[in-house]
Design a protein that fits this description.
alpha+beta, five-stranded antiparallel beta sheet, 3 helices, 5 strands, 33% helix, 21% strand, globular
């Protein structure tokens, strides 16, 4: 499972959200992370750790990212070692861990994605 952060455009005429197409940007308009990393990223942004979020105005979302980056200046999120969780008679679950500073790197990725998305006409940012 994963959580994708993506820009979208509000279409008031049809009362729908339209995701930006990756065809207009070679890097694509999406940041995809695992569920666990997505929850930690949402918490770093000061948002509830819900797997789906209603699109927020892009300026408000950019403010959350900027504030999170400032709070993390001079410190790195800790490394998480891989762990094997054997399931008694069930599948074995192996959280793969993550390297030190991963959350700060993804916050930087979000900041750059917001800039590219604004330039492409995005009005909101959501996740799911």
């Amino acid at each position: 499972m994963s959580i994708s952060f993506m820009p979208c455009v509000d279409d008031p005429a049809s009362n729908t959200w339209r995701a930006l197409s990756g065809r207009t940007d070679p890097d694509g308009f999406e940041l995809n992370v695992s569920d666990a990393n997505g929850v930690d990223l949402l918490l770093a942004l000061g948002l509830p750790p819900e797997p789906v979020g209603s699109p927020r105005p892009i300026d408000a979302f950019a403010g959350l990212v900027t504030a999170a980056l400032r709070r993390h200046l001079g410190r790195r999120s800790p490394e998480r070692q891989p762990v094997t969780e054997p399931g008694d008679g069930r599948a074995t679950f192996i959280p793969c861990g993550r390297r030190e500073g991963y959350i700060e790197d993804r916050l930087g990725d979000l900041a750059r994605l917001i800039q590219r998305s604004r330039a492409a006409g995005a009005t909101h940012f959501g996740w799911g």
